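Task card 7
Instruction: Convert sequence to structure tokens.
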Amino acid sequence: TANYSINLHDTSAQANTSVITSVGSSTFTVGSGNSSGASGEDYVFIAWFASEFISIGSYEGNDIADGVFISCINSAGVPLQPIWTLHKKSSGAGKDWRILDAGRNEYNALDAQLAPNLSNAEGTADAADFVSGGIKLRSTSGDFNDSSSTYIRLTIGIPEIDRAGRILAPR
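Output:
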């Protein structure tokens, strides 16, 4: 969204900034501030969009250990079986980015996790389950599930229905 940004390297909340000043259907305009367009500096811009294997969205936390179900739907409207997800609290500061993945966690509950904005080793805490069509939160941690807080997420997964309309086996 134009005028809003969030940093990948820290715990800050989403902020109204001049990093991106306008967004079109295929272009965006970068502001001239120190964090986006200062003369003589190099910048990296990463953009994701929903596709056959990617679901992007947000959810509201509820601070209940039997937390919310986060539906993961691809660009064709097909549920995904999640295999990797990156998420962060966007409505408040002080919470780390979190990565959960099926490679590090062969079974539910997913407890092995990474915080890409930190230099820490892998951490553990029962955070969520990867289930058919989405993610089921299993934690009251503020990194995942603060009451009335908004979280953003990017999820990569396997479509549960193939192009021929056949149902694929969920996890």
